[in-house]
């Protein structure tokens, strides 16, 4: 008979020794561009540049909405270049970080921010037929035909559409 509170089963083994420490599984140098993560970062840079150019080429009818779109595009573009440079120049091997987790968090965060920017840019585009001034006798819309087309292109080029 076992004493009160005792168990006949041995305690479970400590799981810590069975998990290897985090290591970099993403290659350094130009080999990073051959991986899915490197290709995604490269496409984020390309499409982010296009969105940046398209939004900047229009008149800004709604500064609050399109200002956030520009902030996301420029910030994500700069961070993508920094993140890609860490692997291109081999700094990932010198910095003790779980790069797999950092890569996952980076792509998740950029997806969330780019998707929000896409929604705001699409909302700006959908207001195309509203008059610019409600008290005016001239019926000038918020976006001209050219700006409307550029805004559609900026919404469609947003990297949240399947790149992440």
Automatic annotation (TrEMBL):
InterPro entries: MAL, Marvel, MARVEL-CKLF_proteins
GO biological process, one term: myelination
Residues of the MARVEL domain: 32-164
Topological category with respect to the lipid bilayer: Multi-pass membrane protein
UniProt keyword annotation of Lipoprotein present: no
Chain segments annotated as transmembrane: 36-56, 68-92, 104-123
GO molecular function: structural constituent of myelin sheath
UniProt keyword terms in alphabetical order: Membrane, Transmembrane, Transmembrane helix
GO cellular component: membrane
Subcellular location: Membrane
Main location: membrane
Keyword Membrane: yes
Protein's recorded name: Mal, T cell differentiation protein 2
Organism annotation: Zonotrichia albicollis (White-throated sparrow)
Phylogenetic classification of the source organism: Eukaryota, Metazoa, Chordata, Craniata, Vertebrata
């Amino acid at each position: 008979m076992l004493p009160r509170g005792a168990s006949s089963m041995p305690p479970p083994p400590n799981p810590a020794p069975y998990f290897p420490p985090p290591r970099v599984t993403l290659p350094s140098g130009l080999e990073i561009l051959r991986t899915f993560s490197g290709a995604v970062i490269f496409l984020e840079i390309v499409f982010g540049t296009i969105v940046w150019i398209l939004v900047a080429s229009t008149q800004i009818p709604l500064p609050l909405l399109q200002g956030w779109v520009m902030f996301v595009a420029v910030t994500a573009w700069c961070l993508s270049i920094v993140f890609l440079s860490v692997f291109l120049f081999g700094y990932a091997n010198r910095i003790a970080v779980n790069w797999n987790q950092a890569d996952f968090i980076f792509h998740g965060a950029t997806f969330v921010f780019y998707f929000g920017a896409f929604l705001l840019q699409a909302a700006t585009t959908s207001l195309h037929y509203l008059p610019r001034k409600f008290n005016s006798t001239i019926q000038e819309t918020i976006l001209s035909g050219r700006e409307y087309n550029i805004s559609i292109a900026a919404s469609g080029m947003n990297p949240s559409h399947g790149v992440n």
